[in-house]
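Technical note accompanying the year-one report. For the benefit of new consortium partners, we illustrate the data format agreed upon in the data management plan: each record pairs a sequence with a structure-token string. No post-processing was applied to the example shown here.
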Amino acid sequence: MGRWRYLLRKLLAALVTLVFVLVLNFFLFRILPGNPAKSIARSQKLSQEDTKKLEAEFGLDKSLPEQFLIYVKETAKGNFGISYTSSRPVTEEIGNRVWNTVLLVGLATILMTIIGLLVGIRGAWRRGSKFDVGSLGGSLVLYSMPEGWLGMMLMIIFAVKLGWFPVGGYESTAGITGFAHIVDVLNHLMLPLVTLTLGYIGEYAIIMRSSLIEVMNEDFITTARAKGLRDKLVRRRHAVPNALLPTVTLVVLNFGYIFGGAIIIEGIFSWPGLGQLTYEAIDSLDFPVIQAIVLLSSAAVIFANLIADVLYTYLDPRVREG
């Protein structure tokens, strides 16, 4: 019963948080200075009468309470409105970009998780060794390094100076198909993928190392060694599974961040994902697109956090007993 009460509390908390994000998501962008209809009118040199028609088309001529009710009603239906800049449905705008972000951020999350955890495990198990000292120093440097700066350095070295990879974009020529298209996309993907992976490997390595060192001092590890178990078995069966607990939330949440995109990295390498779309929408005050991305990315993080809480009930006996 304790576990179910725990899960129910977490579920209610997730729903309340989602409602809060829904309300904040609407009013936050309405209090920002600027009017998207007037911005478009100025760029297209529209008359005052056409500007008013544009405001009416966007629904900006209505009061805030009316706009909010329409927003909640349409969002509940899965309708995020029409993009102010492209005049296409927001779901279509996001649909055209989401898989590019999933490819970049999803693959980077898998790589940074695997590499970071392995580095942390090896460093902790050989605490004080050359590998531990070197990997810890490297992890701290990578963790503190701005990912935007790292991306620009990699671009200058490997794209501009050496010419090994393209400077940016998703593909060289739209007409390429088959295996050649896959190679072309991977070639464009390499630098932003490496940048994003290196930017977060240190975080995983540091947390895993610290957690494993703490577990290694526990009594059950001493008992396992006293029974004559081999060092590898002690590490694999007893130490690492218990040390993984603090990293569960980090891993799951990072997968939730996929739908938020990597704005800085996508901007530097002109990667056409949700991060780049977010930047373009903010620059043009495209409220429907901004609201949809913020809502979806927030919902993804909330859902990921809920999954982490569920996993904890199975991984940590203290939660089950509570």
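Partners are asked to follow this layout when depositing records. The radius of gyration is 24 Å.
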